[in-house]
Design a protein that fits this description.
The protein is α/β, with parallel strands linked by helices. The chain contains 13 helices and 21 strands. The chain has four domains: about 120 residues, Methylthiotransferase, N-terminal domain (Rossmann fold); about 110 residues, Transcription Regulator spoIIAA, CATH 3.30.750; about 120 residues, Transcription Regulator spoIIAA (2-Layer Sandwich), CATH 3.30.750.200; about 50 residues. A five-stranded parallel β-sheet has the order 2-1-3-4-5, with helices on both faces. It has a four-stranded antiparallel β-sheet with strand order 18-17-16-19, with no helix packed on it. A three-stranded parallel β-sheet has the order 6-9-12.
C-alpha cells in the first residue's frame, strides 16, 4: 500500500493515460494523492512535443527529489521513449518507464524490478476503470500517428496508429456513465484516424451517443484530411456531440505548410471552415498555430496573421517552433531567429485573445448549456464550467452543485467568462 501522486505534463491523451494508470494503481491497493502532497511514489508523466515541455518534466522531477529525497520518482511516457536515460540522469529520477511499460507500474511496485515482456503483456490486458479528479472523463480511443509532419516528434514517441476496439470503448463509457460522469472527451494522437474494422470515428460517436447516461460528447484535436466533413454533418444533427472542433492550422502560408509536410492547403482549410460554419453558425473552432518554422519569412507570417484574422476562431494555441532531434525540420536551413519567434508569438497571442472575446460575445442574451465543474467567483450557489462551444462560463443558481448541466442566458462577458 503506497501513496502515489501523478503529475501530468502535456496533452489530453497524456491526461487520459494518467487516469488509466491511476485506476490500475487503485485496483492494486494503492492510494492516489494530489500532486504536491506527501507521497511514497511520484509519477511524472512526461511530454516530448516541445523542448520546453521536456525541461518542465526535468524541473518537476528535480523539485520533488529536492523537497522529499525519500520519494521514489518515476518518469514515464513520451519523454522517456525519446530520451529516457538522459532524463533519468539529469533529473535524479529513480526509474524510467516508456509508453508500454508505464502501465506496468503496479507490477513494478509489487516486484521491485523493471517490467519484462510478460509484465507488459499482463498490464496491457488489465481492465480497470480510469480514475479522474475532474467532472469530465477523458477516454483514449486511439494512439500513434504516421503523418510524420516535419516538426513533430509524436510518431517517434508513440509509434504507428493503433485503435481500440469500439466494443471496449463503449463498455468503458457505460461504466463511466454508471459512475456519474455526464461528459466524455474522446482523444487520441490522431483522433480522426480512429478505425475498428469498417467503423470510423463517427460510427463510434454514434454508439456512445446511444448511452443513456452520457449527456455530452466532446472531441480533442482533429486533423484536416481525415473525417472532418462527416463529423460536422453528424454534429449538425446530434443532441450530444458538443458544438466545438479543434482543427490545427499551423500556418496560413502554402509554402510553409508544404515544407511542414501538412496534408492540406490554405484554400482547403478555409473551405472547410466555411462549410462547417454554414452547417453550424455558432460552432466553436479552436486551432494551433506554429510560428517560426524554418523558412517562415515575414511575408509568410503576415499570410498566417491575415488568415487568423479572417477566420472566426474561438480560441488559439500559439507555439514557437523548437528543434526536436529526430525530426526533419531540425536540419532544415533558414532557421528563424529567437527574437522573431517571440515577436510573432506575441502578435498571434494578442490576436487570439481578440478572437476569443469576439466569439464569446455571440452568446450574450442567448441560452447556453454549461456543465458545472467547480465552484466559481467565491460566491455561494455559483459554479464554473464550459458551454458546448467550449466557452468558459460562471453560473449562479440556488442549490447549484458540481457535475450538473444547467441552461442559462448570460448577460455579459467579463474576466474571461460568460456571466
Amino acid at each position: 500500500m503506497k501513496r502515489i501522486s501523478i503529475k501530468t505534463v502535456g496533452c489530453r491523451l497524456n491526461q487520459a493515460e494518467s487516469a488509466q494508470m491511476a485506476g490500475r494503481l487503485k485496483a492494486a491497493g494503492h492510494s492516489i494523492v494530489p500532486f504536491g502532497q506527501p507521497s511514497d511514489v511520484c509519477v511524472v508523466h512526461t511530454c516530448a512535443v516541445t523542448s520546453r515541455a521536456n525541461q518542465d518534466c526535468l524541473r518537476i522531477a528535480r523539485v520533488v527529489k529536492k523537497a522529499a529525497p525519500e520519494t521514489f520518482v518515476v518518469l514515464a511516457g513520451c519523454g522517456v521513449e525519446i530520451d529516457g536515460q538522459r532524463l533519468k540522469e539529469e533529473s535524479g529520477a529513480d526509474l524510467v518507464l516508456g509508453q508500454k511499460e508505464k502501465f506496468s507500474l503496479p507490477l513494478v511496485l509489487a516486484n521491485q524490478k523493471q517490467p519484462d515482456g510478460d509484465d507488459r503483456h499482463a498490464s496491457d490486458n488489465a481492465s480497470c476503470l480510469p480514475s479522474f479528479e475532474t467532472t469530465r472523463a477523458i477516454v483514449k480511443v486511439q494512439d500513434g500517428c504516421n503523418f510524420c509532419c516535419a516538426y513533430c516528434i509524436v510518431p517517434l514517441a508513440r509509434g504507428r496508429p493503433e485503435s481500440r476496439q469500439a466494443r471496449e470503448i463503449v463498455e468503458e463509457v457505460k461504466a463511466l456513465s454508471d459512475a456519474g460522469y455526464l461528459e466524455v472527451i474522446l482523444t487520441g494522437a490522431n483522433l480522426g484516424c480512429y478505425k475498428d474494422g469498417s467503423q470510423g470515428l463517427v460510427d463510434l460517436i454514434a454508439q456512445i451517443e446511444a448511452i443513456e447516461g452520457i449527456a455530452r460528447i466532446r472531441l480533442s484535436s482533429i486533423e484536416l484530411s481525415t473525417v472532418e466533413l462527416e463529423l460536422v454533418d453528424f454534429m449538425a444533427g446530434s443532441k450530444k456531440l458538443c458544438r466545438h472542433i479543434h482543427l490545427p492550422l499551423q500556418s496560413g502560408d502554402n509554402r510553409v505548410l508544404s515544407s511542414m509536410g501538412r496534408r492540406y492547403s490554405v484554400e482547403q482549410y478555409r473551405g472547410f471552415v466555411e462549410y462547417a460554419i454554414g452547417k453550424l453558425p455558432f460552432l466553436g473552432i479552436g486551432t494551433d498555430v506554429l510560428v517560426g518554422f524554418p523558412g517562415e519569412d515575414e511575408s509568410a507570417f503576415q499570410s498566417t496573421l491575415k488568415l487568423v484574422e479572417d477566420t472566426p476562431f474561438s480560441n488559439l494555441h500559439v507555439f514557437a517552433y523548437s528543434r526536436r532531434a529526430g525530426t526533419r525540420a531540425t536540419t532544415m536551413s533558414d532557421q528563424v531567429q529567437h527574437a522573431d519567434k517571440q515577436r510573432r508569438s506575441h502578435c498571434l497571442v494578442k490576436l487570439g485573445e481578440k478572437k476569443k472575446n469576439e466569439f464569446a460575445m455571440n452568446f450574450i442574451g442567448r441560452e447556453v448549456s454549461v456543465l458545472v465543474e467547480k465552484g466559481g467567483m467565491n460566491v455561494r450557489n455559483s459554479g464554473r464550467g464550459w458551454t458546448s462551444e467550449y466557452v468558459q462560463a460562471d453560473v449562479s443558481i440556488p442549490g447549484l452543485t458540481a457535475n450538473r448541466i444547467v441552461n442559462f442566458v448570460p448577460s455579459r462577458w467579463s474576466q474571461g467568462a460568460l456571466r
